[in-house]
Design brief:
- The protein is mainly α and 706 residues long.
- The chain folds into 2 domains: 19-343, Orthogonal Bundle (ABC transporter involved in vitamin B12 uptake, BtuC), CATH 1.10.3470; 356-687, ABC transporter involved in vitamin B12 uptake, BtuC.
- Helix content is 75%, strand content 0%.
- The protein is built from 31 helices and no strands.
- It has helices at residues 2-41, 49-56, 62-97, 109-122, 129-151, 159-181, 189-193, 203-221, 223-229, 233-238, 243-265, 271-285, 292-317, 320-323, 328-344, 355-358, 364-387, 395-402, 408-442, 454-468, 474-496, 503-528, 533-540, 549-568, 570-576, 581-585, 590-612, 618-630, 634-658, 667-685, 687-695.
- The radius of gyration is 27 Å and the shape is globular.
């Protein structure tokens, strides 16, 4: 009875699954078809549906036919190809890493491709499209290899995403430096980096289509192996699947697909993250979608719907003459940043700071010696920063300037250089103090204003004020930066507070907010000043160029208040940084104290951004180095961290002004080059204690934890 009853129960289930999967696929195809038709009818020219139909049937006016055939059809087909390859690449990466946040964006594939193309552009050699695709492929593959290597065993770990996001920030900083140093050779690369499916003819689409087909065929051929990897590495090996070889093959194929999209349309952000997420719930209802050979092509269809849908929606809600200037990648990055925030807010994770770090104690003599050395170094760096630059001065010149007896040339140089040095010193100190406060309150060694999106929010507020009210003063700039930082910090800390500021959740939410604010900043730049990206890049690279003494007054005031509060509340900082229970047992109002310290850190970061632009990783490196030098007591950490931050940013600004003079690089680019490897080092060092957290019952971010 049991044997004969099984087939009737099984067959209808399988038949229902296949029928449901076919229906869903047909619905997706219809949706994509509808979006493609609508997309063809949209544009700046007065060419609607009837004219498009006449053009397709050969009965249209030559001018209308030219618009449709040379512009709109290539744009639509580019959207089809880009969405498909990015959706498939994201599905493949998530399958082999068992990580629902893996994508070409979060694994730094797009950032690696962007840097490789920037390096190629700097040489001045004009590469054909296929050669550009090869360069992008090599750059993306190298970045993916670094991220996968740093993530260590168990590629499903959330560290894979954190490493990729941090590496992407560092690579983007290097690329921005190239754009600033070689504006003529890299002309147009900034606009291209925002991602646009607009095309001039079918040539590029036709050349990239075979790459997409090859990638799809390759993923279908290894589909069964990807399904085995979903069971775990040990289970896959038990089934005879070469785990390492399969993972490398899939990563190479996914990178190839991403390179084709980047070459054709620039980085279209987060399609590879969102498209597989739209398909994933279908696998729970229809078993056919649980297999890679079905889910990968379906994710491609979902990617097409995202790209074309973003393009259609953008042109529907924004006037045509404005919409044509807004890259598709900006819209998808906004959606992707929001998606990353939502997904990250659901992560469960038990990682904490290493016990050895919590118990580190240093002698009073070590603290005094360290402080004395840092003060001496800071004085030396400050003197060098004042004397060196495109014009070299002597100490006597500075003395004459201070007494009002300097010549016109010396006065001009020092009138412009002294405010720059002060801005660098104060911004570095403020960011270091902000990072110290955030890391103490959240007990998170990876937290700092730039990584958490607070600096991005401040930059958005400042850029918004600059583009709408260019004559705004220093206090107005500081207020706008504070408003942006406050909004972003409420989002980040509000979402991460659930469960006690868990390490991975906080940083991932911060990356999501940073992505969204970056997309909005790029949108403002493109809409208000699309042909002057150099000015915006200079601001976003953390430059002190053009600062005056009134610009640093708000920062000096806020920093003085911040240091005073941190020193007076040092005991409370020590208690808050320990755990949740100890402060309460000692009568400390944990919620109020935590909120106060976080608000102070936001004000510090905002005023630093208003005075010196976006400078990343100072709030990460300085507190870590301070604790390593003098222990964890904040009465010692605060002054040492402030001295380190001021020294680091002033040194970075000095190097940026002198090493390649008369050209200049922003201090933010220099600190990103230093801070990115340090962030990655912290992730590698955290393998041991995060592994212990998982052994104790915690789980890494994976599809099973959502």
């Amino acid at each position: 009875m049991a044997v004969t009853a099984t087939p009737p129960a099984t067959r209808p289930s399988a038949a229902t699954s296949r029928a449901g999967a076919a229906a869903v696929t047909a619905a997706l195809v219809l949706l994509v078809t509808g979006l493609a038709i609508i997309d063809i009818t949209q544009g700046t020219a007065d060419v609607g549906g009837p004219e498009v139909w006449k053009a397709l049937t050969g009965r249209a006016d030559p001018a209308d036919a030219s618009v449709v055939i040379a512009s709109r059809l290539p744009r639509m087909t580019a959207g089809l190809l880009v969405g498909a390859v990015l959706g498939m690449a994201g599905a493949a990466l998530q399958a082999v890493s068992r990580n629902v946040l893996a994508s070409p964006d979060t694994l730094a594939v797009n950032a690696g491709s962007y840097l490789a193309l920037g390096l190629a552009a700097v040489t001045g050699v004009s590469l054909p499209l296929m050669a550009s695709s090869g360069v992008a492929f090599l750059g993306g593959l190298a970045a993916a290899a670094v991220v996968l290597g740093l993530s260590g065993p168990g590629a499903g770990s959330v560290r894979l995403v954190l490493a990729g996001s941090a590496l992407a920030l560092g690579l983007a900083a290097v690329t921005q430096g190239l754009l600033l140093l070689f504006p003529e050779q890299t002309k147009g690369l900034f606009q291209w980096n925002q991602g646009s499916i607009s095309q001039n003819g079918f040539d590029a689409v036709l050349q990239m289509t075979p790459i997409g087909v090859i990638g799809l065929i390759g993923l279908l051929l290894v589909g069964r192996r990807m399904d085995a990897l979903a069971l775990g590495d040990d289970a896959a090996r038990g089934l005879g699947v070469p785990v390492r070889g399969t993972r490398i093959t899939v990563v190479v194929l996914a990178t190839l697909l991403s390179a084709a999209a980047v070459t054709l349309a620039g980085p279209i952000g987060f399609v590879g993250l969102c498209a597989p997420a739209l398909v994933r719930p279908l696998a729970r209802r229809f078993r056919a979608f649980s297999r890679s050979r079905a889910s990968v092509p379906t994710a491609g269809l979902a990617g097409v719907a995202l790209v074309l849908g973003s393009d259609v929606l953008l042109r529907a809600v924004v006037p045509a003459d404005v919409a044509v200037a807004v890259p598709t990648g900006v819209a998808t990055s906004l959606v992707g940043g929001l998606f990353l925030i939502v997904m990250a807010s659901r992560v469960r994770d038990t990682a904490g700071a290493p016990a050895a770090d919590r118990l580190r104690i240093r002698s009073r003599a070590a603290f005094l010696t360290t402080t004395a050395v840092l003060v001496a170094v800071l004085i030396g760096v400050t003197i060098a920063a004042v004397l060196l630059g495109d014009s070299k001065l002597l100490l006597g010149d500075v003395a004459n300037w201070a007494q009002g007896r300097a010549g016109r040339t010396v006065s001009f140089v020092l009138d412009t250089r002294i405010p720059r040095v002060l801005a660098a010193l104060l911004a570095g100190a403020a960011l270091a103090l902000a990072g110290t406060l955030v890391q103490a309150v959240t007990r998170n060694p990876l937290a700092e204003p730039a990584v958490l999106g607070v600096s991005g929010g401040a930059a958005l507020g400042a850029v918004l004020l600059v583009t709408t009210a260019p004559v705004a003063g220093s206090w107005g700039m500081a207020g706008a930066a504070f408003a942006g930082a406050a909004i972003s910090s409420v989002v980040v800390f509000g979402l991460a507070a659930r469960g006690g500021f868990q390490q991975n959740r906080l940083v991932l939410v911060g990356f999501g907010v940073a992505t969204g604010t970056g997309a909005l900043i790029n949108l403002l730049i493109v809409l208000t000043d699309p042909f002057n990206a150099t000015k915006a890049l200079t601001w976003l690279s953390g430059s002190t160029y053009g600062r005056s003494l009134p610009d640093v007054v708000p920062l000096a005031g806020v920093l003085a208040v911040g240091v005073t509060v941190a020193v007076l509340r040092r005991t409370e900082l020590d208690l808050v940084s320990l755990d949740e229970d100890t402060p309460r047992l000692l009568g400390v109002r944990l919620a109020r104290g935590r909120l106060g310290f976080l608000a102070l850190s936001v004000v510090l970061a905002a005023t630093a951004v208003a005075a010196a632009g976006t400078i990343g990783f100072v709030g990460l490196v300085a507190p870590h180095a301070a604790r390593a030098l003098v222990g964890r007591q904040h009465v010692r950490v605060v002054p040492v961290s402030v001295l380190l931050g001021a020294t680091l940013v002033c040194t970075a600004d000095l190097l940026g002004r002198t090493v390649i003079a008369p050209a200049q690089l922003g201090a933010g680019l220099m600190t990103a080059v230093i801070g990115t490897p340090y962030f990655l080092h912290l992730l590698v060092r955290s393998r041991r204690w995060s592994g212990r957290g998982r052994a104790g019952g915690g789980r890494a971010l994976s599809g099973n934890t959502m």
